[in-house]
Amino acid sequence: MATELLMPALSPTMEEGTLAKWVAKEGDSVNSGDIIAEIETDKATMEFEAVDEGILLKILVPEGSEGVKVNTPIAVIGEEGESAGDVAQPAAPVAAAAEEVSPQGAAEEAAPLAPAQVAVPSVDVTPDYPADAALKPTTVREALRDAMAEEMRADADVFVMGEEVAEYQGAYKVTQGLLDEFGDKRVIDTPITEHGFAGIGTGAAFAGLKPIVEFMTFNFAMQAIDQIINSAAKTLYMSGGQMGAPMVFRGPNGAAARVGAQHSQDYAAWYSAIPGLKVAMPYSAADAKGLLKAAIRDPNPVIFLENEILYGRSFDVPQIDYTIPFGKARIWREGSDVTLVSFGIGMQYALEAADRLAEDGISAEVIDLRTLRPLDYGTILNSVMKTNRCVTIEEGFPVGSIGNHLSAYIMENAFDYLDAPVINCTGKDVPMPYAANLEKLALVTTDEVIAAVKQVTYR
Amino acid sequence: MAAKKPAKSPNVSKDELLGYYREMLLIRRFEEKAGQLYGMGLIGGFCHLYIGQEAVVVGLEATSQEGDQRITSYRDHGHMLACGMDPNGVMAELTGREGGYSKGKGGSMHMFSKEKEFYGGHGIVGAQVPLGAGLAFANKYRGNDNVSFTYFGDGSANQGQVYETFNMAALWKLPVVFVIENNQYAMGTAQKRSTSSPAIYTRGEAFGIPGESVDGMDVLAVKAAGEKATAHCRAGKGPYILEVMTYRYRGHSMSDPAKYRTREEVQKMREERDPIEGVRQMLLTGNHATEDDLKAIDKDIKAVVNEAAEFSKESPEPALDELYTDIYAEAV
């Protein structure tokens, strides 16, 4: 049966091209793989090969023709004795449906902008744990270790890998005692090879294990960020839901003290930008424990951002088996004049500022986001609609910060409730300096938070 | 290299040989059809064809057992067909349709099958190497004797994470066969212009990983090497490297005019070393099959591929709400 040869698309962007030369002539017999024409695209001259065997019955577009649209019939191929008029069917149509499925169309349907009336996302106000649970002062470091140990006892598929996690007992002693209890099959010292072990951990997670990959600090995870994002975060989507990476990447994040530019960066905003990842950044020991246990049980890749300065801080931790759900902020302090939103170590500036503001008669509500993806938008909106003012606090860089995102969200969803612009208190727009005085200047401070609150409350 | 040489080890059954012929031919015809659909605009973006390299995956799959995993780069159609994935589902993923293995959300470079233990389909050169070692890590953790076939190219072999992985795989004795498909070109850069030492299989020596070079245009040679490598891994001796010397007839991707090599070089390979023609001659000269038998197989394969093409055109595009599914897994 004679068939039409169509002008081929020879690159992802080609819409038309020049039929530079016919290598085969009418009447020639051609085999699969034979070059029959040369076609110029916007990038190169490509050889056009026959896919089927047969006789080139008729050339429909002469050589030298420019601007030949993709899918235009350019020749007819068939068997001996056939003629060009025997073409059985019109050229197969290009996926016509493609037109209807423009990304813009999809976005409009799926994510409508909020109308003037504010629709506050639902808020989970159940207590994190029963009020009568016994509490015990525990450091963040111990709470994290206990979370891992409890989950490893409960699930044999959970294991820890990273630099110095086993025999050294953790560079920051977070994994202390785990090797003794669980052995070297489940508490694994890796070489200094972040890209490699992040990939091995992700592969093990694809196969159904539940790795906890410790980075000595998240600064070193930049070596591994391709595996975290391109492999761990995207595979569930790329596989149509068949397989993903049930795992935790954890370690200290942000500035410690006097460790310079390469060891002092907050990655909260980076990882929070990525669909497919979940991101937690706890402040208290109770939250650190409950969130890490939830992270280990979560079937998705979780970025768990800890802080070296907070490791040694003690907080009351309930002496029961509990988890903290992702996407549920914690209101540390209720107030009526301004909403302070923070997470991780930023909370210490927020809470200090709230104490001092109270002395000046300003009542600040303090929200600890606890997780940045998913993010508890409902709690923020409810609070801002009450206080009409908001200041965000974080240690990360100012451009593209979590505070920027929250400002945009509040503006889009509760603009009419704002009595002042939202102010973002962040680290400064500089690499972290080493000198003690400059380092102090580079970080966000309680004084800056107080100044911002006074600005939005017009005091 | 003698033209159409008989296999060095003719100790293979007729049925096996016919099976390899059929599987290699399926890959070739499938890829030719994919190229055709690309030209018609039905397949978009990047599309990397496997034509010429068929003996590599078919030879290695012949040594796999239930539960073994495989993972590779973006030149992945052959691997999927060779491990038994449905041609309809693969082709429909190429056309971005609901019937594709990833419901149209992955495309040519990103396809997976949990059922067939095929772990992708990875678009970042070399990234699949630590991932493949991670699959092997899971085998060792679970104490089974499964092997991870981790495929990468001569181009990937210059990525740093490959050597990070060699180190850990050897240190922890992970059951992984590193299959380096050396098709001589990293996109448009010939191996001699990119690689300081041409014998890539020797690069495991520094880590204590044995390696060997294999004729990748001879399916029986690949299978023999694969048997040795998998036996090594299953015995708990750690990883093994096979550098399989092969050749891709087409460009790096559909949009590559391949001006970095001569037409004659490609033609010579096709005429003298074609892996499918090699098996075909073995079947005919050994009187294992007649021309008519082989024609019947060709016809069968053509029907399978045509059906896949039809399915891939008729399967609808994914529903619009698929945009927001499969981003997060729900807790079970």
Automatic annotation (TrEMBL), chain A:
UniProt catalytic activity: N(6)-[(R)-lipoyl]-L-lysyl-[protein] + pyruvate + H(+) = N(6)-[(R)-S(8)-acetyldihydrolipoyl]-L-lysyl-[protein] + CO2
GO-annotated molecular function: pyruvate dehydrogenase (acetyl-transferring) activity
EC number: 1.2.4.1
Cofactor(s) listed in the protein's UniProt record: (R)-lipoate; thiamine diphosphate
PROSITE patterns: BIOTINYL_LIPOYL, LIPOYL
Lipoyl-binding domain segment(s): 2-78
Function: The pyruvate dehydrogenase complex catalyzes the overall conversion of pyruvate to acetyl-CoA and CO(2). It contains multiple copies of three enzymatic components: pyruvate dehydrogenase (E1), dihydrolipoamide acetyltransferase (E2) and lipoamide dehydrogenase (E3). The pyruvate dehydrogenase complex catalyzes the overall conversion of pyruvate to acetyl-CoA and CO2.
Protein's name according to its UniProt entry: Pyruvate dehydrogenase E1 component subunit beta
Organism field: Candidatus Rhodobacter oscarellae
Record lineage: Bacteria, Pseudomonadati, Pseudomonadota, Alphaproteobacteria, Rhodobacterales
TrEMBL record, chain B:
GO BP term (any one): pyruvate decarboxylation to acetyl-CoA
Cofactor: thiamine diphosphate
Signal peptide: none
Catalytic activity: N(6)-[(R)-lipoyl]-L-lysyl-[protein] + pyruvate + H(+) = N(6)-[(R)-S(8)-acetyldihydrolipoyl]-L-lysyl-[protein] + CO2
UniProt-recorded Gene Ontology molecular function terms: pyruvate dehydrogenase (acetyl-transferring) activity
Listed InterPro entries: DH_E1, PDH_E1_Alpha_Subunit, Pyrv_DH_E1_asu_subgrp-y, THDP-binding
One Pfam family in the UniProt entry: E1_dh
UniProt EC number: 1.2.4.1
UniProt KW keywords: Oxidoreductase, Pyruvate, Thiamine pyrophosphate
Residue intervals of the Dehydrogenase E1 component domain: 23-319
Role: The pyruvate dehydrogenase complex catalyzes the overall conversion of pyruvate to acetyl-CoA and CO(2). It contains multiple copies of three enzymatic components: pyruvate dehydrogenase (E1), dihydrolipoamide acetyltransferase (E2) and lipoamide dehydrogenase (E3).
Assembly with partners or alone: Heterodimer of an alpha and a beta chain.
Protein name as catalogued: Pyruvate dehydrogenase E1 component subunit alpha
